Amino acid sequence: MRISDYIRLLLLAAIWGASFLFMRIAAPEFGAINTAFLRVFFGFVGLAVILFAIKSSFNFDGKFKSSLILGVINSGLPFFMYCLAARWLPAGYSAILNATTPLMGALIGFAFFGEKLSKRKWGGVILGLVGIMVITTVGESHSTNETIAGVVACLVATGCYGVAGFLTRRWISNKGGLDPKTVAFGSQIGATLFLLPFFIWSTTTGPTINWMQGEVWASVLAVGIICTAFAYIVYFRLIADIGPLRSLTVTFLIPPFAVLWSYLALDETINQGFIVGALIVCVSVWLVVSPEKVRAIIKSEAVK
Is the terminal CB of the chain with fewer CB neighbours within 10 Å at N or C? Predict the structure, then answer.
């Protein structure tokens, strides 16, 4: 991996770390379905504006259907699951569970996509989860049933991310590739179309919602335009450059940023666990994304 790849991983983690805070603010007020739909809708709008502004091509090169399906798997379902979980779980809890994405990706890749993982990479995944547990303080939930439902929702989301990463490589990267901006745009179209019927049903049959809340709208716009439109351009570019499994390791870095943004925005205290856990996470990310290259270099030097 190049230095620029590591920088993009950090940038993506910082942006997605903030998304948990935004969803935690919006979902209880607007509802899970409505928040998820508004996120992908504004993600779609944001990407459309970006693409028009830079005069990007809208040529999907025969991959439009694949992009739509990826949108459902990689955006529509996961966003709804996380918005659902945000009604029951603290943001930190969701961030911990979100970090199981590389593990889910590894398991799915091993079981269905012929991926081979070294013991060192498995060790890195486990170490990353340990670091995240050290970092995040889990708040008390209101009931056991809600906790279980929230955990299941988050795990469904991470499973979707794991599948989508490999399908992106199979349907997009391995078939001539496609501009990451175009893939991201198509995926948000797919996610928006998927969630639109549920949004209509929710607003017409669900409980009355107070839509005149400036702070909530600010969170929705931020999570849609910044955490979705901009972030997914970076994410799909990473998948094309470094592969799905390495791209999924970004989730190891999200909880430290989520805690940091909560500290800055809500004046929450950062304890020693944050520093220790952050160091553990950094080591785990290095183990997962670079061990094979390092071992190959060491072996080459030994032969010389």
Answer: C
